[in-house]
């Protein structure tokens, strides 16, 4: 069987992975099975350089706060600020501390110094301002959108009205609201009014697109649209946090990935005339099939419950069809965590190369049975589901991390 598996695999290179993608691809998702393992963003950097230099890609999107990413993009595309500030202010989830992310931003800026403005690489975040400990206040996004529009349109709401409805930011960012819905302001009458205002502001942004694009510049309109999507998404997420139903956590997972999908849609539309986009995030956010998560200890009465939701990749893949491609990454050995021989990762560990790219369709054709699921050594790692691995367009395997 090993010889047959080798027929489905080749050493990892950007060209080897690109050869497995549909010709119509405009958005390529590269997943990682665990956060905080530098081997995966390092591989991402290598792939992105190939895609830029040989496949016409002109942008990248990371699983990071879309608002914070505006600062990184300003540095990458416009040379505004310095690298240290771009890393400290332009990332969420602690991603600014990653050496691979720093190298990505440095390389993109250096590449852009040799390019005319219309060909420069752009940097995007596609996550909302969300952390495991809670969600950000909607104030920055909502007031920034209001400021953009009020400079050019007569609005029926003042900043003072918004500030009064928003109240103290501490109400929105209270970590206790993560587990106690009664601590969240997301379903108060004031929050309900804010959701209507955010919706109306976004409608005005759309209705006056020609005028506002000329007044703000295309990049200015893009920033306003990021504020609009984020304000609406955050208010929706806070309403979910205030939900007392037992399905609350699953609803929040759905809302987050729906926000991610909307951001990816907007990025693809913005980049349509320039080139495809690489998006890098956890496999669970990019896979084409339904995502699931067995809640570990520490989630109180929810521990041991399996949550299921449609990933951003599944949502955007439905919209884009064969213009969305997904490459799932996984690994063999990490320290004492060695895969069992009958698992997918155990079978792939017999390959001779330290890094390989595998055609999942050919792999499924040569296997005489569906491999057993790998049991993770800890909750930070999500192994691939062997039953749905063939839905990916490519598999990337690192033998040892």
Q: What count of helical segments does DSSP give?
A: 17
CATH homologous superfamily heading of the largest domain: EreA-like (biosynthetic domain)
Judged by helices, strands and strand pairing, the structural class is: alpha/beta
CATH topology of the largest domain: EreA/ChaN-like  fold
What's the CATH class of the largest domain, please?
Alpha Beta
Number of domains: 2
Strand order of the largest sheet: 1-11-12-10-2-7-3-4
Low-confidence stretches: none
Average pLDDT figure: 95
CA-CA gap between termini: 25 Å
Helix content: 40-55%
Structural description of this entry:
The mean pLDDT is 95. Helix content is 45%, strand content 16%. With 401 residues, the protein is α/β, with parallel strands linked by helices. The protein has 17 helices and 12 strands. It folds into 2 domains: 2-57 and 248-400, EreA/ChaN-like  fold, CATH 3.40.1660; 134-244. The radius of gyration is 22 Å and the shape is globular. β5 and β6 (134-135) form a beta hairpin.
Structure summarized in a few sentences:
Helices cover 45% and strands 16% of the residues. It has helices spanning 2-7, 14-18, 39-54, 69-78, 83-89, 99-112, 139-150, 159-166, 169-173, 189-207, 209-216, 218-241, 248-270, 283-286, 312-320, 344-348, 360-366, and strands spanning 9-11, 27-32, 59-65, 122-127, 130-131, 134-135, 277-282, 290-294, 306-310, 324-333, 355-358, 394-400.
């Amino acid at each position: 069987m090993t010889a047959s598996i080798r027929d489905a695999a080749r050493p990892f290179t950007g060209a080897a992975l690109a050869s497995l993608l549909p010709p119509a691809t405009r958005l390529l998702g590269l997943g990682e099975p665990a956060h905080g393992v530098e081997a995966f963003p390092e591989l991402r950097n290598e792939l992105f350089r190939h895609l830029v230099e040989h496949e016409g890609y002109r942008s990248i999107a990371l699983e990071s706060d879309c608002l914070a990413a505006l600062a990184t993009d300003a540095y990458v595309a416009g040379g505004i600020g310095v690298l240290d500030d771009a890393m400290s202010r332009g990332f969420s989830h602690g991603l600014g501390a990653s050496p691979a992310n720093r190298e990505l931003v440095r390389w993109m800026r250096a590449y852009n110094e040799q390019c005319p403005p219309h060909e420069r690489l752009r940097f995007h975040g596609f996550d909302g301002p969300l952390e495991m400990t809670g969600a950000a206040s909607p104030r920055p996004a909502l007031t920034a959108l209001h400021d953009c529009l009020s400079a050019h349109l007569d609005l029926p709401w003042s900043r003072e009205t918004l500030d009064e409805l928003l109240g103290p930011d501490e109400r929105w960012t209270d970590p206790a609201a993560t587990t106690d819905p009664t601590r969240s302001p997301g379903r108060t009458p004031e929050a309900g009014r804010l959701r209507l205002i955010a919706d109306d502001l976004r409608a005005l942004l759309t209705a006056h697109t020609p005028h506002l694009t000329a007044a703000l510049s295309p990049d200015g309109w893009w920033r306003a649209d990021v504020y609009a999507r984020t304000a609406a998404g955050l208010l929706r997420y806070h309403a979910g946090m205030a939900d007392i139903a037992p399905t609350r956590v699953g609803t929040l997972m759905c809302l987050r990935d729906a926000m991610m999908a909307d951001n990816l849609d907007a990025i693809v539309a913005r980049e349509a005339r320039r080139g495809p986009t690489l998006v890098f995030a956890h496999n669970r956010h990019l896979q084409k099939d339904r995502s699931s998560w067995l809640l570990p200890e520490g989630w109180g009465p929810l521990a041991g419950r399996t949550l299921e939701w449609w990933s951003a990749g599944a949502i955007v893949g439905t919209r884009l069809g064969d213009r969305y491609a997904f490459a799932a990454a996984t690994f063999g050995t990490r320290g004492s965590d060695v895969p069992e021989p009958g698992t997918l990762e155990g079978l792939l560990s017999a390959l001779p190369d330290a890094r390989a790219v595998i055609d999942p369709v050919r792999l499924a054709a040569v296997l005489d049975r569906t491999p057993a699921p790998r049991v993770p050594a800890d909750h930070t790692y999500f192994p691939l589901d062997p039953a749905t691995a063939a839905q990916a367009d490519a598999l990337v395997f690192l033998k040892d991390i």
